[in-house]
Specification:
The chain is of the alpha+beta class and 445 residues long. It has 11 helices and 18 strands. It has 2 domains: 5-245 and 280-357, 4-Layer Sandwich (Chorismate synthase, AroC fold); 369-444, Up-down Bundle (Chorismate Mutase Domain, subunit A). Helix content is 38%, strand content 18%.
């Protein structure tokens, strides 16, 4: 089964199934000597874990992370990092009676068609449980981004036609649905509980804002920043739509309305835009403005209502999915969205640094070439002056070799040599070669 690895320079591979023994992630591309701890990773996993509130699944997983490799004494080694999270509260009994039925909204049918086999327990590999590895890796990516001052905030923007009107980032972690609007959050929570009683589920919209992202991230034309963000976010189970900036509403605007006019910020000296309909990305490259993206999250597929379906042989059946499921997955998708954005940005940040390093090397080499050219011109000028000295000495019948003068040339510059922290012996050797050549020029005049 391919398609389990994401990223280029910062690369992850997730593993595990919903009701398997464990899940986790293998991370490659992390530089050595970076301080990282299980506690830091655990903080992110705690935001994703089940059993958080009345509006999430009652499945009780601590999601305790174990660092198996790649970290020694709290520092990364530069080798692959393996993070493991054990499954301890899975209950597969509820799936035994429906194992031969195709669950509406689930990937069982497509997995069975593609591979000829499926793990019918929970959602198997297609379950939201797989995202535990993404969030663990996202914690490492966030650590890297934080060093650059980059911060990512995701939140529930809408659930069941109830939308947040105010955006207070401090409010996100203060309510069960992770909504930045306290009043809307309460309405969302009540709505979810009402639907839950009916054996049904709700979907919603998650919005994410990236602050302090530098301009220049993105690899046109097929690896545009928004293209990679779209792939990352659309790969999350239950996500069915993606937009950046003004998104689909751009189709209803005129160019004069949608274009973000440029100006120079007098305080910072930066080139900025008056509006941000582009969502912080132009031509696939970050502008330095806030990156704004949204994803549409479908209603949870496992519901308690009776539905029409067929079994694996195509015979008509009825199905009611028992077990423990989220009536609305949005609150737990929030940290997953943040993690996938962090993975994309960490990867692109590394690409940009590699590009800049290449450009920097080119600039340095050009400067060295310039200095080398100047050295040749100076040596040419020195040779011409040596010829003049040779003529002057010849007219006066003076010897070419002048021990006192040659000794003086070096000694007078010894203090400067030491101040510049140059190797005195090396400079002495250079002068010996230059003076030896000067003698030769003077003799040949």
């Amino acid at each position: 089964m391919s398609g389990n690895t994401f990223g280029t320079l910062f690369r992850i591979t997730t593993f595990g199934e919903s009701h398997g023994k464990a899940g986790g992630v293998l991370i490659d591309g992390v530089k050595p000597n970076m301080i990282i701890s299980e506690r830091e990773i655990q903080q992110e996993l705690n935001r994703r874990r089940p059993g958080q509130s009345k509006v999430t699944t009652p499945r009780n997983e601590s999601d305790q992370v174990e660092i198996l490799s790649g970290v020694f004494e709290g520092r990364t080694l530069g080798t692959p990092i393996c993070l493991l999270i054990w499954n301890k509260d899975q209950d597969s009994k509820a799936y035994d009676e429906i194992k031969d039925l195709l669950r509406p909204g689930h990937a069982g049918f497509t997995y069975l068609t593609k591979y000829g086999i499926q793990d019918y327990r929970g959602g198997g590999r297609a379950s939201g449980r797989e995202t535990v590895g993404r969030v663990a890796a996202g914690a490492v990516a966030k650590h890297i981004l934080a060093k650059q001052g980059i911060k990512i905030f995701a939140y529930t923007k809408e659930i069941g036609n109830i939308a947040a009107k105010n955006i207070d980032l401090k409010e996100i972690e203060n309510n069960a649905v992770r909504c930045p609007d306290r009043i809307a959050a309460k309405k969302m929570e009540n709505k979810i509980l009402q639907i839950k009683k009916r054996g049904d589920s709700l979907g919603g919209v998650i919005e994410a804002v990236v602050k302090n992202c530098p301009a220049g991230l993105g690899e046109p034309v097929f690896d545009k920043l928004e293209a990679d963000l779209a792939k990352a976010l659309m790969s999350i189970p239950a996500v069915k739509g993606f937009e950046v900036g003004s998104g689909f509403s751009a189709s209803k605007m005129k160019g004069s309305e949608h274009n973000d006019e440029f100006f120079k910020d007098k305080k910072t000296g930066r080139i900025r835009t008056k509006t941000n309909n582009a969502g912080g990305i132009l031509g696939g490259i970050s502008t330095g403005e806030d990156i704004v993206v949204r994803v549409a999250v479908k209603p949870t597929s496992s519901i308690g209502k009776v539905q029409e379906t067929v079994d694996i042989k195509g015979r008509k059946r009825k199905i009611k999915v028992e077990g423990r499921h989220d009536p609305c997955i949005c609150p737990r998708v929030v940290p997953v969205v943040e993690s996938m954005i962090a993975l994309v940005l960490a990867d692109h940040l590394m690409k940009q640094k590699l590009l800049r390093r290449s450009n920097t090397n080119t600039k340095i080499r050009n400067q060295i070439n310039l200095i080398d050219d100047m050295m040749i011109l100076l040596l040419t000028k020195r040779k011409e002056l040596a010829e003049d000295v040779g003529i002057w000495k010849k007219k006066r019948d003076l010897p070419v070799y002048d021990a006192e003068r040659e000794k003086e040339i070096y000694s007078q510059r010894l203090a400067l040599i030491k101040e510049a922290k140059l190797d005195p012996e090396f400079i002495k050797d250079v002068y010996n070669i230059i003076i030896k050549n000067a003698r030769k020029v003077q003799r040949e005049v």
